[in-house]
Write a structure and sequence with these properties.
This protein is an alpha+beta fold and 390 residues long. The chain contains 7 helices and 17 strands.
Length: 390
């Protein structure tokens, strides 16, 4: 007992103060300034940043202002992680416009302009092609055994170590991919490109469901009748009206299609006998397990925020946050899409220019084949070179 108490004291002493709680963007800046003054190494700063959880959005402009305090590639990587993980949060209060909320009539007028834009302009966009650069960040994953028992019979083709445990327990850069994608009526049609090996079995999550479609989200939010003015915010230096919304199970068409999660089946027989009985005792058997990989598919309620140009009704940002049951193997799927003007031939169209997706899932599924663990995967996507689709 005394030894256990001593170990706890040592652990608490070694734990940095900022690792035990959420911090504001200003506190993050102060921490970086202090570590620079203390001449901390790149690895030391990165380790500290891995233990930070922001309570506010780290905007791109603020992130760029921190570059002089970040000493190397490892800490730079973690700053990008913090930006992505905070993408759906509100920015610091000091960064919000100091303007009063509009009256009810003005709120309705802005919402009406946005509804018309979402359905008649954005929803009527022509077939477009674009280049998407997607970056994946992910933390550790503990994977369930593909086979176990006296005789093995796995049907997964992953070829992975059956007791794989990746040592990096913090979110870090995994890879970057570039692909040609298509937009039809403003909706992206191409799934995330597949990695080597089988999804799930290779420690990777694939999001195969339809990304949020602005016109559909707007229609469902209005039909649900749960949309309200929330605040003013600056987007690209211009004031935007932020509306919060909720779409319940009755009105939602938000389809989640994630791949893949293990389904472990056991087969065989085990013979038992008691050592106290004639003939001796022990256990015999050929207990086997086999693992197949299944999709998680569901249509779920969701909530989020819509950012509207108050003069034109153009939507400049959309945030959606899917709602799951506690028993689901997917716990989180938050998406943010930023829209902006891009040249398309001889025209300028407002199209998606950046997206951030934050997810949390149970990589072992609900089979009980592995210790319970959570996997966090984040994707950031940039879109360019828009052109008429073929």
């Amino acid at each position: 007992m005394k030894r256990f108490t001593w170990m706890v004291v040592v652990m608490l002493t070694a734990m940095p103060a900022w690792g035990a709680k959420k911090v504001t963007v200003q506190q993050l800046r102060d921490m970086l300034v202090q570590m620079q003054a203390a001449k901390k190494t790149d690895e030391e700063v990165a380790t500290a940043l891995k233990q930070v959880v922001l309570s506010e959005e780290l905007t791109r402009s603020t992130m760029n202002s921190l570059v002089d305090y970040v000493p190397g590639k490892f800490s730079t990587e973690q700053i990008y992680v913090l930006e992505a993980r905070s993408a759906t949060l509100a920015p610091p209060a000091d960064d919000l416009p100091n303007a009063a909320a509009p009256d009810a009539a003005a709120q309705k007028a802005m919402l009406d302009r946005a509804a018309e834009y979402a359905t008649k302009t954005y929803g009527a966009l022509p077939h477009l092609g674009a280049t998407r650069t997607m970056v994946r960040f992910q933390d550790h994953v503990e994977q369930g055994p593909l086979t176990s028992g006296l005789q093995n019979s796995a049907i997964s083709d992953a070829g992975a170590n059956p007791n794989l445990v990746l040592p990096n327990q913090f979110v870090h850069y995994i890879n970057s991919t570039e692909a040609q994608v298509d937009f039809v009526n403003g909706a992206e049609k191409n799934p995330i490109p597949q990695e080597k090996g089988q999804w799930g079995a290779n420690g990777m999550l694939a999001l195969l469901g339809q990304a949020p479609v602005l016109s559909t989200v707007f229609e469902e939010a209005q039909k649900a009748g749960k949309i309200r003015f929330l605040r003013w915010e600056l987007v690209n230096g211009k004031q935007a009206a932020v509306y919060a919304f909720n779409v319940d199970k009755k009105n939602t068409h938000y389809a989640v299609d994630d791949c893949c999660f293990p389904d472990v089946g056991q087969a065989g027989r085990v013979f038992f006998s008691s050592a106290s009985m004639p003939g001796g005792g022990g256990a015999k058997g050929n207990l086997q397990t086999t693992t197949s990989w299944n999709f998680y598919k569901a249509t779920v309620p969701y909530h989020g925020e819509i950012f509207i140009n108050p003069e034109t009704g153009i939507v400049v940002r959309l945030i959606t946050q899917a709602e799951f049951k506690n028993s689901d193997v997917v716990h989180q799927e938050d998406q943010r899409i930023d829209y902006g003007p891009m040249p398309v031939g001889d025209k300028t169209l407002v199209v998606p220019v950046r997206a951030v997706i934050n997810t949390e899932d149970v990589p072992g599924g609900d089979s009980g084949a592995a210790n319970f663990s959570l996997r966090h995967t984040m994707f950031t996507a940039e879109y360019k070179d828009f052109h008429a689709g073929s």
